[in-house]
Automatic annotation (TrEMBL):
The keyword Glycosyltransferase does not apply. PANTHER family: CASPASE RECRUITMENT DOMAIN-CONTAINING PROTEIN 8 (PTHR13265:SF1), THO COMPLEX SUBUNIT 1 (PTHR13265). It is found in: Cytoplasm, Cytosol. Residues 1-11, 47-62, 358-369, 379-394 have a biased composition (Basic and acidic residues). This is FIIND domain-containing protein. Coiled coil: none annotated. CDD domains: Death (cd01670). Keywords: Cytoplasm. InterPro entries: DEATH-like_dom_sf (IPR011029), Death_dom (IPR000488), FIIND_dom (IPR025307), THO_THOC1 (IPR021861). GO terms for cellular component: cytosol; THO complex part of transcription export complex. Residues 84-362 form the FIIND domain.
Length: 491
């Protein structure tokens, strides 16, 4: 297909100033320098974990089911209008999840491969390891001028650019009727500037880009008339209600960045939600600037009456709030307001609304299996804490982590251990230089880093719980958090 666009810098106002809602520190955490070999995926996530001051729970605990954009398979559309357009097929590979929002893909040979979880397509010239994560357009949409809109998710990819030849980004557009009226490019954010770079080609599902350097990049489109998009509808039930049912119903493009923003909004809510496992894909296309309405059987209290579908980059996603005083089943239907044609429909039954406590029990059991058996020293510390209780109350201070426990954590730390030490353990670059000068073995360097943090804490403030709270962030490898959870279960 035709190649559209040419490289140019997006100028908003003075052109060199990043969006007003993106501070220098935030940008540094999300944007890699093109001259750096380190990926920004190893830096602090744009969606750090926060704690609700009212109940002490982390925000992710309030979203009871795992709904991360990176955890489920990529939702491929079955659109009757654009099925006639050819969709290339590639070898599908499944990445390994290395932290809450980062993935690692091992490619054994030269070729073109499609990620099963994101839909990204990578063309490599030889064996490669690729790290990547989904980013939010809310953080980068300010680089787009009014004539350009995002066409699919924006990603941060880390790989040797000499190996990674091209990337194909999934898009949500239907190209059946207006392919010739669209211009495709990619937004490439580097050196704190947003550049429009040309796409090489496009298909009904992807936009292809030749890799120049690696920092946040995502597909964009310029259309002469409002475009139509493949969409999804996501339903979340509020947890903890008695004798009533309240839901949030979101509709959006089939776009991992859009879905990521919805999940972030739910995690930041003071209420707790669980996802309803219903087919999300819309049966009809979503049209820009059209209004949509939600209907229910039996009739529930639905607010607002209708919502306009727009690709404007906003921090808060619009949603329908649906409230029922009766028991399920409930049938929900999303319709286009003007034509009254049904876009999506699903029935929520009583079993869908049940919170299965067994899931948490199984996770705790698996965490125990992953952790090593309790050492003699740990048993002694545990007994000491039990003996120190009076009137049934546990002593306010717990035992500090032992050397053996610190070494267990050190062994599962990845290459991000330095940034982790500075960001979360309050060590300085001078601390790390001193440790590296005194230790040659990498495991011992990581151990000394944890030990230096432990020594700087007040007695009783360097236990498993304290280190777990320090390292419970999205860019810390799952293995680290799992080891600490296992230790915590045994304490």
């Amino acid at each position: 297909m035709a190649n559209f666009g040419h490289t140019k810098e997006i100028e908003g106002g003075n052109g060199d100033i990043p969006p007003s809602d993106l501070t220098g520190n935030e940008l540094e955490n999300d944007v890699s320098s093109p001259d750096s070999t380190e990926s920004s995926s190893d830096e602090t996530s744009d969606e750090g974990e926060r704690t609700d001051p009212e109940n002490g729970k982390s925000c992710s605990e309030r979203l009871s089911l795992d709904t991360e954009a990176s955890t489920g398979d990529h939702m491929k559309q079955h659109c009757e209008k654009c099925e006639v357009l050819q969709r290339p097929s590639y070898e599908v590979v499944t990445p390994r999840k290395i932290s809450r929002d980062r993935m690692l893909l091992f490619l054994e040979d030269e070729g073109v491969y499609e990620c099963a979880q994101t839909g990204l397509v990578f063309e490599v010239t030889r064996k490669a390891q690729i790290r990547y994560r989904v980013l939010s357009w809310c953080r980068f949409g300010g680089y787009l001028s009014e004539s350009w809109t995002f066409a699919g998710p924006i990603f941060d990819v880390d790989c040797d650019p000499s190996i990674l030849k091209s990337i194909q980004f999934p898009h949500s557009l239907c190209l059946a009727d207006q392919d010739s009226e669209m211009k495709f490019s990619v937004l490439h954010v580097k050196d704190q500037r947003g550049l429009i770079e040309p796409s090489v080609d496009h298909s009904r599902s992807h936009i292809k880009w030749s890799v120049s350097s690696l920092s946040p990049v995502g597909p964009i489109v310029q259309a002469t008339k409002p475009a139509e998009h493949h969409g999804v509808v996501l339903v979340y039930k509020e947890v903890g209600q008695q004798d009533s049912y309240s839901f949030r119903v979101y509709f959006a493009t089939n776009n991992h960045s859009d879905i990521k923003d919805i999940q972030k909004e739910l995690r930041n809510s003071k209420k707790r939600y669980m996802k309803m496992e219903k087919p999300p894909t819309c049966q009809r296309l979503l049209g820009e600037n059209r209004k949509y309405r939600l209907l229910s059987e039996p009739q529930g209290d639905i607010t607002p009456e209708d919502i306009q579908f727009t690709l404007a980059v906003v921090k808060m996603k619009g949603y329908f709030e649906v409230f029922f005083e009766q028991c399920p089943p409930f049938k929900l239907s999303l319709i286009e307001a003007d034509s009254e044609q049904t876009v999506w429909a699903a029935t929520i039954r009583a079993g869908d609304c049940t919170v299965h406590a067994v899931d948490k029990t199984q996770k705790r059991s698996e965490s125990r299996k992953r952790s090593n058996s309790t050492s003699e020293e740990e048993l002694t510390n545990k007994r000491a804490r039990c003996n120190d209780e009076s009137d049934g109350a546990r002593a306010p201070r717990s035992a500090d982590l032992s050397d053996k426990q610190l070494m267990q954590v050190a062994k599962v730390l990845g290459k991000e251990w330095k940034s982790m030490a500075i960001c979360y353990l309050d060590l300085t670059n001078q601390d790390l230089e001193e440790i590296e000068a005194s230790e040659e073995d990498l495991h011992m360097r990581k151990f000394r880093t944890l030990d230096r943090w432990r020594r700087r804490q007040a007695k009783g403030d360097a236990g498993v719980e304290q280190l777990h709270n320090k390292l419970d962030h999205e860019d810390v490898p799952n293995e680290v958090v799992d080891v600490l959870k296992g230790m915590r279960e045994l304490s």
